[in-house]
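Entry:
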Amino acid sequence: MGSPQKGKSVEQFGMPKIGIVTPSYNQGAFIRDTIESVLQQGYPNYEYWVIDGGSTDNTLDILKSYGERIHWISEKDRGQAHAINKGMQKMSADIVAFINSDDLYLPDVLSLVARYFSEHPEAMWVTGDYSIIDQAGNVIQSYVARYKKKIRKRPTFQRLSVANYIAQPSTFWRSELIAEVGLFDESYRYCFDYDYWLRAVEKYPPHIIGDRISLFRIHRDSKGGSEFSKQFQEEHEVLRRHTSNRLLLGLHRLHSTLIVFAYRMLKPYNKKAASDRRMCSI
């Protein structure tokens, strides 16, 4: 685990095809920046799909402006997990990931991920570090990112059961993993990603990349900004499907209670969230 070697070109490590999906719904304020963070990677072998749920804002105008530089569809769907699954099924890639329509990749991370997988053929999935930003792009809640980075150093099922240390937009996995653990569970609104990480870690430990991979945005109209209490309730329901260990369930409940209390004290969001698309990543 740790970061791959630097100083070698991606060509020296091979160029596995990386497939990326962006689920979208009425995120015209942010989606162009997300798309640009993918297109400006400079990685030559990738496939990018934006799966829009029928946006009524300016999202479609933005998507059309890219011509053939991206693949996209816009049609009513059954929610965020369904959109991601549709995108995954359209792609033919060696490595896959999804990034939401208000998050960002940092420069050169696709090459970084490609090098890591090439150097570590035993790695089935990897996750890296991240920063949390607000609506304007300012870094916030750095204490959360530091906390998760610390517990991520020992990526066990037990630790994941207590606290979700996986940074979703900084996570990539081999397409073979989909054949083993399936697609995302569309019955979950918030924590389909947490369910997926638990399914994955039961088979393979994640490899940890020490570098920052992404910027995770929290704002007033995001689920991560205003519906965190509901997120943690669903997260506990997810965990109960994966373990009956009372100690782990109790520790998870205690941890969630403390986190919700901290969120309410440190960053209160009182308005109801819009139906943008977030998940159980914070």
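The two ends are 23 Å apart (CA to CA).
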